[in-house]
Specification:
This protein is α+β, with helices and mostly antiparallel strands and 635 residues long. Helices cover 25% and strands 28% of the residues. The protein contains 10 helices and 31 strands. The protein has a 4-stranded antiparallel sheet. Helix 9 packs antiparallel against helix 10. It is elongated, with a radius of gyration of 48 Å. The termini are far apart.
Length: 635
């Protein structure tokens, strides 16, 4: 095909050159000096006679000669086409003659009927070639020749680029738009979405080989506690102690952490700081919330996931709205409510599926706020004082930093104090009890850092909801029940202050403790009451664990440190999800310990009565024996 096309092209060029030579002959002009530079052909002096066709061995030339014979004289009318004049040049092959006229530098080319017929022949040949290609299975898609409308020259591409640049806004206008709050909000939100999409599959190993055979020696047992990412912000949280951690009730990957006051006195950052983190993006917080006073406790609203509530060192209750801004949208007054730091607060169910806020300050003052939208003044205030006690007990100062509701009874609560005493108080008036403190127990010999009740679990009797743990700076953790005045068990594993303690929300017998040495202990009471099931060093050297919090599914635990970082740990399946018999086993063991504690309590009360009776009969020896027995019973 290429050879045939080349032969046709050579023949057309030869015919054009013959036509030009004949035209010069007719006008009386002699051929140009030099003539044809082709050495193997003589100059043509007269037009080729149609009766004497050129003898050639090429069949294409014979066909063209026959076609020329058939052209009548009438059809030799020429169509004038204007074109830009081009300089003439010589070819190695003699072209076909063509009549060319020049008018003021413009070349006038003449298109003959012969050229039209040749173009028609070429079109027919291309059509036949296309049909033959389709018949042998070669489609149009297999041809690499691009379509004419798809071919773009360099000039067209540059024109397209110039049109695109012309459609853009001027540079000053673009800079002005990029500095607006609306654009910055859109850009930040878009970057957050893209970053979440890029990090959502980090836990999956894309290089895993499913066909590899592993030997028994290479198989490693899965760790009970697996370290995860660390959530920290070097500019904001450096050397700020984590004061509280709370998970979102709706978004399972979202949690918040509050931080203590700023340590650098030269810093211009506010003292109050709450960062909202996502487990998918540990490199930066999702939201940054600030206020003027240091935040001591913070939590999400139970039914409004965009609302964050916090208690501050100044005694104010602060409310943020994540959908509005990073500063508080509402707060309590300094003259109404608390005047001392608020270390503990909780959301309490109210009427019409609403929630009230109950906060307790260190001076023993309890305030109940109707809602986050009504913080002008508390709907109820209560000073924790003893009810029905002697005057020496009534004058006792109450400094509480933590509390917990007794099961699902939001009228009764247990408060922990700096004196190591547990107070049993009621909030509202009842038929048999007035509001105030009704009893107390000397639980520890140092300040109590936290009180944590066993959260309700499906399948677990309500008796277990009255089970709670306390931890203290006396290096001990104790297990209590509201029906006994003595601890069911004392855990003395820690070798430093125990700063926090939390029950697992899923497994009935699992709880975790964090101490001043940075050790995280996971206890399983179904396995052992003396030693923790697992222990891990969760912090760096000389750093303490300040707060811990289980996730809603019990599979992760967030650990806050004194350096301002929050570390995430994943628990093994056996620690996160209980078996069917775990709840029954835990209930039976706790029930046995409650009976033993009640028996010891009754025996001690009998000894006390006996000691008082014999002491009234002037028998000091029996009184001293009674004191010794009481001390042993306490131990």
């Amino acid at each position: 095909e290429m050879l045939r096309k080349k032969q046709e092209r050579v023949e057309r060029l030869r015919l054009r050159r013959l036509e030009r030579m004949n035209a010069r002959k007719e006008r009386g002009r002699s051929p140009r000096p030099g003539g044809d530079k082709t050495p193997d052909k003589a100059p043509i002096s007269s037009p080729v006679s149609p009766k004497k066709p050129v003898v050639t061995s090429d069949p294409t030339k014979d066909i063209l000669t026959d076609i020329k014979k058939l052209i009548p004289e009438k059809s030799k009318q020429r169509k004038v086409v204007l074109a830009i004049a081009k300089p003439e040049f010589n070819h190695n092959v003699q072209p076909a003659p063509r009549v060319i006229k020049y008018d003021k530098g413009i070349q006038i080319s003449l298109e003959t009927e012969l050229e039209k017929s040749l173009q028609a022949d070429v079109a027919r040949l291309r059509k036949r070639l296309s049909e033959a290609s389709q018949s042998v299975g070669v489609g149009d898609g297999d041809v690499n020749t691009p379509k004419p409308d798809e071919v773009k020259t360099i000039e067209q591409q540059r024109e397209h680029e110039r049109a695109f640049m012309a459609s853009l806004l001027p540079l000053p206008e673009r800079k002005r738009i990029m500095r607006t709050d609306k654009f910055l909000h859109f850009f930040k939100k878009s970057c957050t979405v893209i970053e979440r999409a890029l990090t959502q599959n980090d836990d999956f190993d894309i290089t895993i080989n499913y066909s590899k055979k592993e030997e028994k020696a290479d198989q490693k047992e899965e760790a009970w506690i697996k370290p995860g990412p660390t959530f920290t912000d070097g500019l904001r949280t450096n050397m700020r102690t984590v004061t509280s951690i709370a998970w979102s009730p709706k978004h399972k990957d979202l949690f918040l952490a509050s931080y203590a006051e700023q340590q650098n006195i030269m810093s211009m950052d506010p003292d109050g700081l709450v960062l909202v983190w996502s487990t998918h993006t540990p490199s930066r917080p999702e939201y940054t919330l600030t206020c003027q006073s240091a935040v001591l406790v913070a939590q999400f609203h139970p039914v409004k996931p965009n609302i964050v509530i916090a208690g501050t060192k100044s005694g104010q209750v602060i409310v943020w709205d994540l959908s509005v801004k990073s500063t508080p949208v509402n707060r309590t007054s300094l003259s109404q409510g608390h005047t001392h730091p608020v270390y503990a607060m909780s959301s309490v169910p109210a009427v019409n599926k609403a929630y009230s806020i109950l906060s307790v300050s260190t001076d023993g003052h309890v305030c109940i706020w109707q809602d986050t939208d009504h913080l002008e003044e508390p709907s109820m205030e209560l000073d924790l004082t003893f009810v029905g006690r002697k005057n020496d007990v009534k004058d006792r100062d109450i400094t509480t930093t933590c509390f917990g509701f007794v099961g699902r009874d939001f009228n009764s609560l247990i408060l922990g104090s700096d004196e190591g005493v547990l107070y049993n108080a009621r909030i509202y008036d009842g038929p048999n009890a007035a509001p105030g403190i009704h009893s107390y127990v000397s639980a520890h010999v140092a300040p109590i850092s936290n009180v944590c009740f066993r959260p309700p679990i499906k399948g677990l009797p309500t008796l277990m909801s009255e089970l709670y743990l306390t931890c203290s700076f006396d290096w001990t953790t104790k297990l209590w029940h509201t029906k006994t005045k003595k601890p069911l068990c004392t855990f003395e594993r820690c070798r430093d202050y125990v700063y926090d303690i939390q029950w697992s929300p899923m497994h009935p017998a699992i709880f975790a403790t964090g101490d001043g040495n940075g050790k995280l202990d996971i206890w399983n009471l179904n396995k052992d009451f003396e030693l923790p099931t697992q222990t891990i060093q969760a912090t760096e050297k000389d750093r303490t664990i300040s707060k811990i919090a289980f996730s809603g599914d019990g599979q992760s635990i967030a650990v806050g440190t004194s350096s301002g970082s929050v570390k995430m740990f994943s628990l093994r399946e056996e620690l996160a999800n209980p078996a069917e018999e775990d709840a029954k086993q835990f209930y039976e063991s706790i029930q046995a310990r409650i009976q033993q504690a009640s028996q010891r309590q009754n025996d001690q009360m009998g000894l006390e009565k006996m000691g008082r009776r014999y002491a009234s009969n002037n028998n000091p020896y029996l009184g001293s024996i009674t004191s010794v027995l009481n001390a042993r019973a306490d131990r």
